[in-house]
Amino acid sequence: MGKRPAIRPGRFRERRLAAFTQTTMVLVLRIPEDIISTILDELSSDIEALKQCSLVSQSFLPLCHKLLFSDICLYHPTRSRGICRLIVDNPSFASYIRTVEIIPGVFSTEFHGRDWVTFEDTKLAPLLQKLHNLHAFSLCKMTSPPIPWNTLPANLRSTILNLSAPSFTLKAVANVPMGHFGQFRCLKALNLINIELDHGHSLDLGPLGSSLLSPQPVGYLESLRLFNYSHINLTCGRHLITVLTNSRSLLKLSRLKCLELFGDLGFTGTIMEVAGQSLQRFVWAGLGGEADYHPIESPFTRFPSSFGTLSALRYLSIDTKFARGHVYDPLPLLAQALARATPRDACALEHFKVYVNLYGCWLMEFTPRDVDSVDEYAIWPALDQALTRPGVYTKLKRVEIGLVCASGKAALAGLSKRRMPMLLKMGVLDMMFPDW
pTM of the predicted model, to two decimals? Predict the structure, then answer.
């Protein structure tokens, strides 16, 4: 028998590597899609890892693309034009994009002091028009001053107002046409942050969209967040609530589940009463200051008269300055509404949270007289009695009371025992004294 030809060591390693690579590729290709999806979901926040995974095999590529393009942020016209070209060349990518955030701002001297979104050639409008699977849209300016709605190109304004994304966020935008929200029947979550009335332009109230003769299908908002830290969105906010509570609006508040507000704007009660038994979570902050309070104007109400109409409410959070004795103190209204619920209402309240900020109430360190002023606040026994009545708040698991202060904590430590003994006895009261 003849001898087998000798194989050079280098050649042998090359053959083994080739065989290993082929075997690995076969194994990778045979991994079930649900396992690949699980692996990639764990890496969804790691962009570089997803890019590497997209090179593993053809079976990884579509899922990697879905994750890589699901959430895009547009902060420069070059980026928006590039993604628009990508969608034109690869139309299937459009369905991958579910979230778009546009960040206006002057990031370069090339814009000559203007926000880049105000230019005509950004391709933002054509790009948004191609995204038919969009779930969330945001236009968020991170710096002052706000960008006037009227300065956006007409085709971009029209495109934004015709989006069907379920989630919609605007931040630091002036002159927003509030009336158009009455036509957003697909909207489920609306977030308006630092929305201002720009006195340099007229406010575009927009149509109510209900002069139509035939009945139109309606939609139901589930989450509403109105935050404005400068307290100058009152006109815009009132117009929005006027629109959404109008019988002709195509977007209704009657199934609202989550409500977050900043400031005592005078229409909180109106929203809660319309939401009624659908409302499950309510967060109210920025209260207790004279500048935070706005007198009630008809037909709005400041706060619901009774929690009996809010039987599904599970979480309630109030954040206020210490305003004992002032008309802008929200806590007496809160205690009254809690006290008017009856056992028949079957209230679902589980977590009740009140934080009272004591900073700025006194010029100097806490004195015994200051401690007495907090201790003798009538709201403590009022809450104690309202929340412990038999058969009313039977699902209550936690009452969280926070007194935000830098001093006087030792003197106030016994407040719960002195002023809220029944809640303490129930074992649900949690008294805290955070510094801020």
Answer: 0.84
